[in-house]
Design brief:
The protein is α+β, with helices and mostly antiparallel strands. The protein contains 10 helices and 9 strands. It is globular and about 60 Å long.
């Protein structure tokens, strides 16, 4: 196998602005790189490095059981480099919906892929097989975002890259820390079970997805159009994703504020960060004074 030339480029964390869960049904998702957190190959021998190497060795064992992935990833070189002191430094918090496992998959592919895959949907499929080690099943979208490192819209037909400044400048986005780690697997299984309910599935496909698409279309415009759609979207999440909303943030999922403000779950929900949107950071900061908030 011919190994690609490696590099030490940073792999950034990701944010699903809109589209978690809906991507399971191949609906559109809007992805965004978050450069505050990143992963990067380094050399070292401390406890952080040891923990990283142990995690990667476990992933490599999983990859070596998959004939296709063995052809695509140079696992022998990974193990050799790890034994020489290489590890993946990462400050991406685990269980917070920012793609900690996706960054690891993207970093492995960036450094150890044996061939180039130019089709983003095919790359997503491969990434999904790799990331399934962590979650039982994976769409592959998280590592794809971490690997591309640019905003994009994705659906079953392909990936459309967006400019870095596609969001209206008036829209401020914040990450509200729930102080609780999220467990992706159980929540995704719950959602799949709910889809067996005909009424739930019809509402999700015919009402929720329409509102989701309107939010993605209007975020570049800001103003009443976006925040009006966001308010409807929050109401849908309150109703259809009740188990994914933590008790300490449930009151924020209101739809009536005297200024433009709205929230939504991030990733699988159930903890991690909650996303908020506003065009008045001062008012939003007052509202969220009891929380730690990271503004993008």
């Amino acid at each position: 196998m011919e190994r690609q030339e490696s590099n030490n480029n940073m792999i950034y964390s990701k944010i699903i602005l809109f589209g978690e869960y809906s991507m399971i049904l191949d609906s559109k998702a809007l992805m965004f790189p978050f450069r505050k957190f990143f992963a990067q190959w380094r050399n070292g021998q401390d406890k952080v490095a040891e923990f990283s190497r142990k995690s990667i060795f476990s992933l490599v064992e999983y990859l070596e059981k998959d004939a296709e992935l063995c052809e695509l990833i140079d696992t022998k070189s990974i193990k050799n480099d790890l034994n020489q002191g290489l590890y993946l430094f990462s400050n991406i918090p685990s269980g917070y919906g920012l793609g900690s496992s996706g960054a690891l998959v993207a970093a492995l592919w960036q450094r150890y892929a044996t061939q180039t895959i130019g089709d983003f949907l095919e790359l997503k499929r491969v990434f999904g097989r790799m990331e399934s080690f962590f979650h039982g099943s994976s769409s592959g979208i998280d590592p794809l975002q971490c690997y591309i490192g640019k905003p994009f819209v994705i659906n079953k037909d392909g990936v459309r890259l967006l400019p870095d400044d596609f969001i209206d400048s008036r829209v401020e986005i914040g990450l509200i820390d729930t102080k609780t780690k999220s467990g992706t697997g159980p929540l995704v299984r719950h959602f799949r079970e709910m889809l067996n309910d005909v009424v739930y599935k019809n509402r999700f496909e015919n009402e929720y997805l329409s509102c989701l698409n309107r939010c993605m279309e209007t975020i570049s415009q800001g103003g009443d159009d976006f925040f009006g759609n966001l308010s409807q979207f929050t109401a849908f999440q309150n109703e259809l994703f009740e188990p994914m909303i933590t008790s300490d943030t449930r009151h924020l999922f209101a739809t009536q504020y005297d200024f433009h403000f709205g929230v939504k779950i991030l990733g699988s929900g159930g903890g991690g960060f909650v996303l908020c949107f506003t065009d008045d950071r001062r008012m939003a900061s007052n509202l969220l004074s009891k929380f730690d908030v990271i503004w993008l």
